[in-house]
Write a structure and sequence with these properties.
The protein is α/β, with parallel strands linked by helices. It contains seven helices and six strands, in the order βααβααβαβαβαβ. The chain is globular, with a radius of gyration of 15 Å.
């Protein structure tokens, strides 16, 4: 069973305060991948913060309120939301930090183990890499890949640095075809 994990394709990371041209550019490709993935093989993460975000450790390091639960910016980008329509609510993971500690257990609990895991989404150097490394530690024999053409970082440089780090950790960079 090949699993696709769509990481944090939320409005605040695409068109909001942390949005970038690179994030906006990957939306149609991520949407197409999600749309063409069977619902039972699809997981979506949502960066999820509370109104006290600025008082948190992350807020002190990244003083830009974003993805506050209940706000428009917390919602998935419209094209992504349409592409993942029909996904069970249990496959949408609200995570209060970069990586989801629940994701490894969720994948272990599947009726059949994943044979391959693919990541797409934002931000390559923060949330994509954190989730990929969490799964690499938990499911070390499962092939894990990141599709660079369907990921975007805070900057092109941070995106490329994350890709290098992922390769060092034996996470595959999947072909340039979208």
């Amino acid at each position: 069973m090949k699993i696709l994990i769509v990481v944090d394709m939320q409005k605040d990371f695409i068109s909001g305060p942390l949005g970038t041209a690179e994030a906006r550019a990957i939306v149609p490709y991520v949407a197409e991948k999600a749309k063409n993935t069977p619902r039972e093989n699809l997981f979506v993460t949502l960066d999820t913060h509370q109104p006290n975000y600025m008082e948190t450790n992350e807020g002190r390091h990244l003083p830009v309120p974003h993805c506050i639960e209940g706000t428009e910016g917390h919602a998935l980008d419209n094209a992504i939301a349409a592409a993942v329509d029909g996904i069970p609510a249990s496959r949408i993971i609200c995570k209060p930090t970069f990586g989801s500690v629940a994701l490894p257990d969720m994948l272990r609990a599947l009726p059949e183990p994943p044979t391959e895991i693919e990541f797409v989404g934002v931000c390559t150097g923060i949330c994509v890499i954190s989730n990929a490394l969490c799964l690499k530690a938990a499911l070390w024999e499962t092939p894990i890949g990141v599709r660079p053409s369907c990921c975007a970082g805070v900057t092109p440089e941070s995106h490329n640095n994350a890709l290098s780090a992922l390769q060092m950790c034996q996470i595959d960079l999947l072909g340039d075809e979208k």
